[in-house]
Amino acid sequence: MPFLMKKGRFAECMILGWQAVEDMVTQMTVQEFKLLLAPEKEDPRVDILRDNVGFQNKLKFLKDMGRLSENDVAIVKQFSTERNKLFHGSVFTSSHPVEMPTVEKKRLMALANKASQIVTNRTVGVWVGEGTGDVGNKNVSKPDKPKGVKFTDDLLGGKYQIIDGSDLIQDVEETNGGTEADKMANEESEGSRPKG
C-alpha cells in the first residue's frame, strides 16, 4: 500500500485496500468459529460464513467477540462507506476518480491504508502496532470475550470434551483415566495383578 500511495495509484490502492479489509474480516470471522479458510470447498460452514454473512454483520460480530475495538470498526466502516460511494455510487452524484482532487485521493488512500493495516494486525492478534502506525487502540484495553464464548473456548481448548457427538460433556482428565495420581495408582494396581 505505501508504494501505491507514494506513486499516486489511486484505483489500485483503493481496490487492494478493500480486498485486504474484506479478506481479513472474513478470516477473523472464520477463526472465531475455529474453522480454516483453506482448502476451499472442504467445509461448507466456511462457505456460509464467507458468502452468506454480510460485511457489516461480520464487523459487529468481531466487535462483540473482542477482535475489533469501537475505533477499529469506525475506521473500517468509514473506509467501506467511502469505497462504496466511489465504486457503487450514483453516476450523477458520486465523484469520478478522474475528476477527484488530489487532496481527496490522498485522504482516501490514507484511509484505505489505515483500515487494511488495522484488520491485518487484528487478524494476527496485534492490538496496537506502533511500527505500522496502528496506534488507535493504545489507550484501549482489549475487550473480553462474551461469557458463553469463554465456555466454548474451554470446551474446545481441551478442558472438556463432547463424548461421541452426544450432549454428554466430560472433563478430559476423567475421560483419560483421571489425574496423574489416579493414573499412577491404576498402574500400580495393574502391576500387582497376576497376568493370565
How would you describe this protein?
The protein has helices at about 1-5, 10-30, 45-50, 55-65, 70-90, 100-125, 145-155, 170-175, 180-190; strands at about 160, 170. With about 200 residues, it is mainly α. The protein has two domains: about 1-130, no CATH class; about 145-190, no CATH class. A hairpin with a 6-residue loop joins strand 1 and strand 2. The longest helix is centred in the first third of the chain and has 23 residues, at about 10-30. Mean pLDDT is about 80; it is low at about 160-170.
Quickly list its features.
single chain, 196 residues, mainly alpha, 2 domains, two-stranded antiparallel ribbon, 9 helices, 2 strands, globular
Topology of helices and strands:
Elements: H1 2-7, H2 10-32, H3 44-52, H4 55-64, H5 70-88, H6 102-123, H7 147-156, E1 160-162, E2 169-171, H8 172-175, H9 180-192
Antiparallel strand pairs: 1-2
Order of helices and strands: HHHHHHHEEHH
Query: If you compute it from the alpha carbons, what radius of gyration comes out, rounded to the nearest whole angstrom?
Result: 24 Å
Strand content: under 5%
From the N-terminal CA to the C-terminal CA, the straight-line distance is: 72 Å
Q: What strand order characterises the main sheet?
A: 1-2
